[in-house]
Amino acid sequence: MRIADTAINVVRAAVSSVTDPEYADLTIQQLGILEDVVADSISIRVDLVPTILGCPALDVIEKDVVAAARASGYDVTVRFCMSPIWTPDRISEDARQILAEEYVVTIRPREGPTKCPLCGNTALQPRSDVGGTACRSVEWCPDCRNPVEVVRSRQMGER
Ligand SMILES: [Zn+2]
């Protein structure tokens, strides 16, 4: 017996609305953490791509995904994929806007200067390499005088 597509769709809908523990306005779908929901004959598995954005939060995300699936009526296992590798490119456009407006977080672009999400100034000054987590750095916008968190990616510049 095969697990029906409807079950997979129910689980997908349930887990895609799980929010990131750190960015409560953003779902794991918007952040590109949710990769796929797959099933074999006996179980449903949720594949997640570990993000550097919320790296310390993966345990919480895993628990929330399992709980959301269970609430929709299904037990799932969670697998963190090694491939594809998460990059900021996986963050949706609407999520980028929320990150900029609500959290003053910007994504370092693949090319060109990093922009202040508040005023668009491109002359950000480095402040700290550590930031809120090891995944982010804090820069300073001399124009609007705000600290800006910049999301980095290990993959940046490696292509
Ligand atoms: Zn600014």
Describe the structure concisely for a colleague:
By secondary structure, the protein is α/β, with parallel strands linked by helices.
What can you tell me about this protein's structure?
The chain folds into 2 domains: 76 residues, GMP Synthetase, Chain A, domain 3 (2-Layer Sandwich); 48 residues, no CATH class. Helix 1 crosses helix 2. A hairpin with a 4-residue loop joins strand 6 and strand 7. The N and C termini lie far apart (44 Å). Helix content is 23%, strand content 22%. The protein has 159 residues and is an alpha/beta fold. The longest helix is centred in the middle third of the chain and has 14 residues. It has 3 helices and 7 strands. It binds zinc ion. The site of zinc ion has 8 residues, from loops.
Please outline the helices and strands:
Layout lengths: L4 H12 L17 E6 L4 E5 L9 H14 L4 E5 L12 H11 L1 E3 L17 E4 L7 E6 L4 E6 L8
Parallel strand pairs: 2-3, 4-7
Antiparallel strand pairs: 1-2, 5-6, 6-7
The structure holds zinc ion (ZN).
Secondary structure: helix percent: 10-25%
Compute the average pLDDT.
86
Distance from first to last alpha carbon: 44 Å
Rg estimate, integer Å: 18 Å
Number of helices: 3
The SSE order reads: HEEHEHEEEE
Number of domains: 2
Q: Which CATH architecture of the largest domain would you pick?
A: 2-Layer Sandwich
Spatial strand arrangement across the major sheet: 4-7-6-5
The CATH homologous superfamily of the largest domain: Fe-S cluster assembly (FSCA)
Shape: elongated
For the record, what CATH class of the largest domain applies? Alpha Beta
- How many β-strand stretches? 7
CATH topology-level name of the largest domain: GMP Synthetase, Chain A, domain 3
User: What does the largest sheet look like?
Assistant: 4 strands, mixed
Task: Note the beta-strand portion.
Answer: 15-25%
